[in-house]
């Protein structure tokens, strides 16, 4: 019942895995909200950045293969936006740990609620700053490598893709 014809997971198996994963996600988010530390806000931002990436990745990937350029633009934008938010949030978290563990004598407080919220807003702003221009004609999102994923068209040599 849980396995498919080729030995992989069937529809029921995928549903069971999705429900278990969703339950773990909800419990993880609730535990982060209950901890209520400034660092947990950064961790929650990483989770909230990865959640749409997981939820939209497969449908947008399908849209990219079916709809061509328009689907590829959506898929590339979603991957770039949410992936950059996660990477910036991980960088902020690692800097906070560096200051907390190795620079105790500096008396630098990077883990206040106000600074955490500023860092979170900054991560989203920075990500939008670099992922929105291809939607407005400065560069573009296109198939990359073997043609299975979409990203910024790094290889293109059109006037829109060459820096000033």
UniProtKB/TrEMBL annotation:
Domain G-protein coupled receptors family 1 profile per the UniProt entry, residue ranges: 22-164
| This protein's UniProt keywords | G-protein coupled receptor, Membrane, Receptor, Transducer, Transmembrane, Transmembrane helix
Q: Does the keyword Membrane apply?
A: yes
| Compartments, record wording | Membrane
Q: Which Gene3D superfamilies match?
A: Rhodopsin 7-helix transmembrane proteins
Q: Where is the chain membrane-spanning?
A: 12-35, 42-63, 75-95, 116-136
* Single GO MF annotation: G protein-coupled receptor activity
- What InterPro entries does the database record attribute to this sequence? GPCR_opsins, GPCR_Rhodpsn, GPCR_Rhodpsn_7TM
Which PROSITE patterns would you find in this protein's record? Answer: G_PROTEIN_RECEP_F1_1, G_PROTEIN_RECEP_F1_2
Instruction: Tell me where on the tree of life, at the top rank, the source sits.
Output: Eukaryota
- Give me the Gene Ontology terms describing cellular component: membrane
**Pfam families linked:** 7tm_1
**Membrane-topology annotation of the record:** Multi-pass membrane protein
**UniProt record similarity statement:** Belongs to the G-protein coupled receptor 1 family.
Annotated protein name in UniProt: Opsin 3
Which taxonomic lineage is given here? Eukaryota, Metazoa, Chordata, Craniata, Vertebrata
